[in-house]
Amino acid sequence: MLNRMATLLIVEDDALLRDALAGQLGPLGWDIATATNVEQARSALQNQAVDGVILDLGLPGGDGLDVLTWARAHISGLPVLILTARDGIEDRVRGLNSGADDYLTKPFDMLELQARVQAMLRRARQPAFQQANAGPSTTVGELQLDHGLRQATLGGEPLDLTQREWELLELLVHRAGEVVTRDDVLAAWHASPPEPGQSSAALNSNALEVYVHRLRKKLDASPLSIRNIRGLGYMLEKP
């Protein structure tokens, strides 16, 4: 149980599921608000204080990702859990890269959903999380990423990055100190538009090695390093 009443916004157009979620989550101590489409969801976020969102993607009047994109632009640090029938890896990567804190596919276990929502709201209350979400930028040592402009600076000097190098660096920074698998990177690349003159077929493990090598050279002047974790992937080591 949380220490105080929190308001959860459930964005779901299926009335039976929406009522079931409200019926199961409400008695746990959460105040429940609901929306059935994109317009209602935005209105709810604009007109009341919301501590977290459970978001379906297949909504009338637009995609749930439209709600997520709007929320990320207007409400810093709002915890969002995507609950959807879209279970493809590209869908999951697209949702997480768009700013979702968690992603759960239907059908699901209600106890697991409850645990994920509790964990999500606990993380949102941690000082480190609040500091990280204070603005549209991330800093690791001398490296700073402006996610809105998709630009990086190292020691105050801009880094010249290609689209794929930026996406790789952003993923490594987001999970600094953790292993990022090759599949994670390739899935993120395939879920985004190709670079000019490049086909998606060109994105493979060999291409990834090339991009990692280029990125390492561009970080040479800093204490940051990209470590190769044999058989698993890569990790950005914090200074």
Describe what you observe in this structure.
With 239 residues, the chain is α/β, with parallel strands linked by helices. The chain has nine helices and 14 strands. It has helices at residues 15-25, 38-47, 64-74, 89-97, 110-124, 127-132, 163-174, 182-190, 205-218; strands spanning 6-11, 30-35, 52-55, 58-59, 62-63, 80-84, 102-105, 137-140, 143-146, 151-154, 157-158, 180-181, 225-229, 233-237. The protein has a five-stranded parallel sheet, sandwiched between helices. The protein is elongated and about 55 Å long. The protein starts with 5 loop residues before the first strand and ends with a strand. Keywords: DNA-binding, Phosphoprotein, Transcription, Transcription regulation. Residues 135-238 bind DNA.
Note poorly predicted spans.
126-135
The number of helical runs is 9
**CATH homologous superfamily annotation of the largest domain:** Response regulator
CATH class of the largest domain: Alpha Beta
Protein name: Response regulator transcription factor
Modified residues (4-aspartylphosphate): 56
Keywords: DNA-binding, Phosphoprotein, Transcription, Transcription regulation
DNA-binding region: 135-238
